[in-house]
Amino acid sequence: VLVLLLGALLWAPWQALHGAPLAELSGDQDFQLFLHKNLEFTRKIKRDVAALQRVVCDTFQLCKEEELLLVRQNLGIAQVPLEQCHSRAFQAVSIRDGLHTYHGSLATVLKLLPGHAGLVETLQLDAANLSSNIQQQMEDLGLATVTYPTEGQDPLPASFSHFHHEVSGFFILANFQRFLETAYRALRHLACL
């Protein structure tokens, strides 16, 4: 019994600190509305990324990461560090900056899948809109922000083969999907505070 009581005493302060960075916002109706709207928006973006992943799998037979790990090492694909979204001192800026990174990287996917340009462009627009939503919410809360210019250039050197571009598209979408899953969990956690 003493061990259980000690465990509970050690666990309780840790849990209280888990939500501490944004505790003053937990009851704010506008902030909660922002979170719930953008949770749904994030789910929609995840579905669109999954649809593009299926297209890449069906079109190029690139379906399994473990088969492409050696090629990945040579590509230098940008990947947003997910631990920023997991941290106890979570900041919405981590999600916003990640969305900005993937928005630019989707140019590779657009070149790779011209027949699915509508879906890729919708995904780019949705990523930009979610990033803008987060930017606006940060400004509404009086948090310091920085706005980045929109990039639309291909992040890969022209010297890469078509296969390298296909693999890059695969990993961009896989990384984006992981990022969205982490961002969704972070937003959901904030909504539960």
Helix content: over 70%
- Overall radius of gyration: 19 Å
Overall outline? elongated
Cα(first) to Cα(last) distance is 30 Å
- Helix count equals 7
CATH top-level class of the domain at 27-58 and 92-144 and 162-192: Mainly Alpha
Low-confidence spans: 1-24, 85-90, 148-154
At a glance:
By secondary structure, this protein is an all-alpha fold. Helices cover 70% and strands 0% of the residues.
Describe this structure as you would to a colleague.
With 193 residues, the protein is mostly helical. It has a domain at 27-58 and 92-144 and 162-192: Growth Hormone, Chain: A. Helix content is 70%, strand content 0%. The protein contains 7 helices and no strands. The chain has helices spanning 2-18, 29-60, 69-75, 83-86, 92-112, 117-140, 162-192. Helix 2 (29-60) packs antiparallel against helix 6 and helix 5 (92-112) packs antiparallel against helix 7 (162-192). The chain is elongated. The model is unreliable at 1-24, 85-90 and 148-154 (pLDDT under 50).
